[in-house]
Amino acid sequence: MAEKNYNLDYLNSISNGDQDFIKDMLETFITNVPDELAKIRNLVAKGNWHKVGEDAHKFASSLLFLGLDKLKIIATQIEEYGLENKNLDQIPELLVMLETGCNQLIIELKRDFNV
């Protein structure tokens, strides 16, 4: 079996293994992530860097419950660059990496959980 890009340990621990709760959380993630990423992309296009940083911070925390450490690092970097108004030219490339990783993850979750 292929290695998973996500880890359900945290969700299992907070739900005491309640599979319905886990599936609900995954469905929420799958539904909300594209909208959240589109919102950040729109803020990048407008050059609203501080708000990019704030929204990336919120988004990074949503990655924790699936053990998405690599994607969280990218989101945290976008957050830092936006809030500190530095390396702004790197944010679009980082956002593409974040979007690509999340899109792959959504495909994987849909496949693995039939959601």
Question: What is the structure about, briefly put?
Answer:
This protein is mainly α and 115 residues long.
Describe the SSE topology:
Layout lengths: L8 H7 L3 H28 L2 H16 L4 H16 L6 H23 L2
Helix pairs in contact: 2-3, 2-5, 3-4, 4-5
Describe the structure.
By secondary structure, this protein is mostly helical. The protein has helices at 9-15, 19-46, 49-64, 69-84, 91-113. Helix 2 (19-46) runs antiparallel to helix 3. The radius of gyration is 15 Å and the shape is elongated.
The total of helices stands at: 5
Q: What's the total count of β strands?
A: 0
Secondary-structure element order, as H and E? Answer: HHHHH
Largest sheet: none
Q: What is the number of domains? A: 1
**CATH class value:** Mainly Alpha
> Based on helices, strands and strand pairing, what is the structural class?
mainly alpha
How many angstroms does the end-to-end distance come to? 20 Å
Low-pLDDT residue intervals, each spanning 5 or more residues = none
Assigned CATH architecture: Up-down Bundle
General shape: elongated
Overall residue-averaged pLDDT value: 95
Write down the oligomeric state.
single chain
Query: What Rg, in angstroms, do the CA atoms define?
Result: 15 Å
What percentage of residues falls in helices of 4 or more residues?
A: over 70%
Beta content comes to under 5%
CATH topology descriptor: Four Helix Bundle (Hemerythrin (Met), subunit A)
Looking at this protein, list some descriptive labels.
115 residues; mainly alpha; 5 helices; 78% helix
